[in-house]
Prior knowledge:
Elements: H1 5-23, H2 25-33, H3 43-49, E1 56-58, E2 61-63, H4 71-79, H5 87-104, H6 111-124, H7 137-153, H8 161-188, E3 190-191, H9 194-205, H10 210-220, E4 232-233, E5 244-247, E6 252-256, H11 262-265, E7 268-271, H12 274-286, H13 301-310, H14 320-328, H15 335-345, H16 352-355, E8 358-359
Parallel strand pairs: 3-8, 4-5
Antiparallel strand pairs: 1-2, 5-6, 6-7
Amino acid sequence: MEETKEDRRKRLARERAKRNYEQNKDSILAYKKDKYSYIKIPKEEQQKRGRKPIEKEFGITTINKKTRFTEEEIINLIMNDDEINSVETKKFHSNNIRRFFRIAECEDLRCLKIDYKLASKRVEEGVNQFTGEPLSPQSIQHTFASILFVISNYATELLNPKIKNYLQDKFNEYSLRTNDYYDTKRNELVYPSFKNYIKKVKEKYGTDSKEYLVANLYNEFTIRDDYGNAPILDNPMSSNEINYFVMRKQYIYFINNDYKTSNKYNSIKYTFSTTLTRLIKNYMANNNINLGDFLFNGNLSSFVSNMNKQLGYDNLGGINIFRHIRVSEMDGETYEDKIKLAKQMGHSAMTIPKYRNKIELKV
């Protein structure tokens, strides 16, 4: 069969990604192992050093006329910026900046002054470094969003208005492309109901499994990847910096402090049902998990993605499958209930249409 233009583009993209992986294998593996690492100087030490009147200092990085805005400098600025309240937001921008420097092949952000159209084109034609597939419109949109964030907050004098407007136009373009992309995907995909999903998990893994517990947690409280590395305590904490479970005699509740939009919606508390409370306690007993331990060590993204593939849902993504199911099952509910759900899930009500999909009818 003759290779189509689209197939050829994808093949060449995979080959480029493979060559890139072989050439940079050690750094890529190190990135996957510790992709959120950064250097931060304690506030006390910053106060001892004092602040210069003209310079803006974040951690170890001081912005002045000699600042080059390298990848390392920018990530340190982001991760040490006390004006960014959410750790998830810091991770979001840091990962996008890493993607930009990898794809655009820039040594520092001044490459935009030299040839901003070339750098932008490379972003648009970029590929996922792990899969070799072309970047999704949303990944490109996010990359431009973080570049604009850095320009607006740190590199304010680096680029002229013409370049800034060009980058803003690219962001707007890929915002529209992302909407069109997901509109098309919604017409193609059919999601399981939670009832069907949990039934398949039960049949494949059993009721004592981690898979069954994860599916039921997301069925009741459909958050993002926020259950990982959350300790189980017997009393609430005064700190609002981490997520955690609180176990009482009759029930268990979850405090979601650190999530993507926490700076907008603040802490969210959810009390689990009696059935799910019993399921959590049984899982703890079976796996020798005690008070003070994490219910799940590490994030759940890769775990859920692998589970979905084994269940035959590999085309529906990872944890986001749960948010799509939950919103889609609300189609017949009142607007008041939909607003309540949006707050509980920690996203805007305007996000609901993006998550709405067809739900399979088979029980």
